[in-house]
Amino acid sequence: MQHATQLLLADGPLKRYNLSGAGRPEEIPDTAALVAYMHKLRDAERAVTCTHLVNFLKRHHRPWLNVYLATKKAEYPSLLRLL
Hints:
Blueprint: H1 2-9, H2 31-43, H3 50-60, H4 62-70, H5 75-82
């Protein structure tokens, strides 16, 4: 809130100001491992599909996946939008 007030009271060009914390937070756990898995598939000249990503999450992050799906009304479509 203090940073927002500072931006509103600033006089002059505002190009150098940036709000910290802007952007979408990561929801998927261990994204580095998921990215490494995607690179491994691409190195093997295989297409990376949503099925591959869902299977990765099932194998490596089953508890998180169960909680995520339990909190959504349309489970599978919301998971595909997330991926």
